[in-house]
Amino acid sequence: MTDKILRMDRHELLNLIKNPPDNLFEEARKVRDAHYGKKIFVRGLIEFTNYCKNDCFYCGIRRSNKNAQRYRLTKEEILSCCETGYRLGFHTFVLQGGEDPYYNDDLMCEIIYEIKSRYPDCAVTISFGEKSRDTYKRYKEAGADRYLLRHETANPAHYGMLHPKELSLKNRKKCLYDLKELGFQVGAGFMVGSPYQTDEHIVDDLLFLTELNPHMVGIGPFIPHKDTPFRDFPEGTLQKTLTLLAIIRIMLPKVLLPSTTALGTIHPKGREMGFQAGANVVMPNLSPVGVRKAYSLYDGKICTGEEAAECAACLKRRIESSGHVMDFSRGDSLVE
Ligand code: SAH
User: Fold this and answer.
1) Residue 241 within a domain
2) Residue whose CB lies within 8 A of the most ligand 1 atoms, among 51, 131, 150, 260, for a mutation test
């Protein structure tokens, strides 16, 4: 079946999404196990600012949301999150934030450089939106290893329905190609069940992913946020998200594929089910507990109350109970 999926055209992919075979998850697990075994890689997520100059219609920290309690972490606070993570055994730190110009290139590079000097055996991942090639280059020179930038949707018309007009798919894609060219390990991805998304759009996403051939792919269900224009849209479904995780695993065998917090939010066992569908990464929260609720991209986000150590212990139980092993190494992508 896996060979067949690798050769599918647009029409066949559409049919696969609509009528997934019964053994899809089993096949996806086989592909993952062949490359990565039962290892689930851990990344410590640090949500360092929820200020954002963008106004994406789906996102709870969009600039128009006047109800958001805004915060910024200082360099020292970020470093202290890393210290906590390192003590827990983590070897990847993911710095994610809204597009907050307060963190100019000098400050970002200082932060990246300092983390890499203190923890040279760790990987630093940045998830800080669209920047110029020059800025990405500076991040790389400061020591950043990876960059997460979901493409959100590979269909230009659909992109326009999710974003204000100053944002374009063209620029988003350019960023991803710039990042790849600069030598970052790159993550793309999209929301499942975002407003107006059709199965045809999802086929566009899958085809774009095979073209880009990223090192990582982040997908999770869309979940409405009460203070956004999309408050009344339904959330993406568990089944569709799991089906797409499995298809992506088979289409991009060596990709790193997180079982996301959003998936754990729509179902109490969502992340475990993600592992069964071929996912192999989790990103426990290292942000200070005091700011976790404020980094609210969608309603009902889980893991906002626990200390990092509790989060890690809880994830370890979930990983082991589903027959996998928590892996604390850097966990670099096998994608060349
Ligand atoms: N500013 C950064 C980080 C964005 S937050 C950037 O532009 O890349 C990370 C991801 O959260 C987004 O890429 C988006 O896919 C997801 N997200 C945002 N709002 C969401 C929602 N309401 N439901 C589910 N996922 C959401």
Assistant:
1) yes
2) 150
Question: Is 335 among the domain residues?
Answer: no
- CB 236 less than 6 A from any atom of ligand 1: no
Q: Are 330 and 91 in contact (CB under 8 A)?
A: yes
With the CA atoms of 300, 283, 49 and 205 taken in that order, what torsion angle do they form, in degrees rounded to the nearest 10? -80
Asked whether 152 lines ligand 1 (CB < 6 A), one says yes
Starting at the edge strand found earlier in the chain, the sheet holding 39-42 runs 281-282, 39-42, 325-327
Total structural domains within the chain: 1
Q: Return averaged pLDDT per consecutive 10 residues of the chain, 336 residues in all.
A: 95 98 98 98 98 98 98 98 98 98 98 98 98 98 98 98 98 98 98 98 98 98 98 98 98 98 98 98 96 97 93 95 97 96
- pTM, to two decimals: 0.98
> 332 in a domain, yes or no?
no
CATH of the domain at 49: 3.20.20.70
